[in-house]
Structure prediction request, 372 residues.
Amino acid sequence: MSSNLDFRAVILAGGSGTRFWPRSRRSRAKQVLPLDGERSMIQRTVDRLQGLAHEEDIWVITNDLLAETIEEQLTTLNCSKILREPVARNTAPAAGLLAFLIERESPDAVIGMFPADHVIGDVEAFQRVIRQGTALAAAAENMVVLGIRPTRAETGYGYIDTGSAVNDGVLRVHRFTEKPNEERATEFLARGNYFWNSGIFLWRAKTLANAMREHLPETAPHLEKIAAAYGTEQFKRVFAECYPLCEDISLDYAILEPRSAKGEHKSNLFCIPAEFGWNDLGSWAALYEHRMRAGDDVCDSAANVLECDSALVQNAQRNYVYAPGRFVALSGVDDLVVVEADGVLLVTTRAHSQEVGKLVKELQQRGSDHLI
Prediction:
C-alpha cells in the first residue's frame, strides 16, 4: 500500500452460517470454523490483510454469540475494535457504524469491507487488486466493488451489471441486481458484462458516511450517536439502545442500488474484475467443489471428499462426507452430503445442500434450540 494512503479494514463477521449446519451452530458459525484447513475462516481473512492494514487499523463487527471465540482466535487484534452487535441488523448498519467511527478519526481514510468467511486462493493477486481499488477510492467520492466473473447461472449471488471501461481494467457500474431467478441468471451469464458481487467494497470513510446520511436518513443519526459514544463508559448502553432502532437492510439494497439508479456516469460506482480464486463457500456443495479443485488429500479417485478417520468405498462417486474420528462405508451412492457433528447427522444431496438453512428454521420453530 502506498505510504500516503490511510487504509482501514473492516471485517463483517455476523451471521449464523446456517447452511453449514450441523457443523455450524449459533455460537460456532461458519466464520470461526476451519472449513478447509487448520485456521478458521476469519483468521485467514486477517492473515491476507497483512501488508495492507496495520493490526491496529483492523476492525471486526460480530455478535455476542461469536465475539468471545473471535477474540480468542484473533489474539493480536485490539479487543476494543471487535464490536458486538446487540441485535442483527444486516450489513448496511454494520458497515455504516464503522464508517461513522472511522470518519470521526480520519474522514479521508479508505475503508475496505471484507466478509469474514470467504476463500481467496491467490493472496498476492488479492492484495494487488485491493491496492488498485484503494487508490481509486481515495481519489474522489468513489465506491469500488470487486467483481468475480461468473462461471455458472448462480441464483444465490448478487450481480453487477457493468458499463463503460475507465482504465486499467476498471469498469463503471450500471446497476446491481440481488439474487436473480435462474432465468435471469442464465441471461446475465450469456451477456458477458455481468459479474458476481464479491461483497468486498472500498470507499473513503466520509464517502460511505455521507451515503448513509443520504440513503438511510432515519438510521444514520442512530449510528452517529453510537459512534460518538465510542471510547466512553456509555458506549455499551448507547449501542444497545440505538442499534435496534436501525433499519434491517443490506448494503446492496440500502446504498448500492439507489446509487446506481443515478446512472453510471453520476453514481461514482466502479467495478474491478478480480481473479484471485474467490469462493464464498455458501453451502456444503460449494465446499465440496472447493476441496476437489484444491486436490486435497481427502479427495479420492472417485471424486469423493472424505473427511473421516478411514473409509471403505464401493461404487460410490462425488460424495462429501464429514465425520471426524469415524469409519465410514459408502456403497452404491452418488452426490450425497453426509455430515456428523455433535451428535447430529445430516444426510442430503449436493444439489439440495443450499436448503439446509430451511432445516434450521424448522428446528427453531419447533423449539429445538439445543440442536442449533
Notes: Residues 138 and 281 are 31 Å apart (CA to CA). The chain has eleven helices and 15 strands. The chain has a mean pLDDT of 93.
